[in-house]
Amino acid sequence: MDVETLVTSTAATVLGGLLLALFVFLIREKLCPIPNINGRWYFQKKTLKTAYNPYRNMVLRYEVMLWREGTSVHGTTEKFYEDAKTGTREYIGKNRTRGKVEGFIQKNYLGKDRVFLHISENGHGRESTNFHELESQSKTKMVGQFSSMVAKQSGKVTWQRTPF
Question: What pTM value is reported for the model?
Answer without folding.
Answer: 0.83
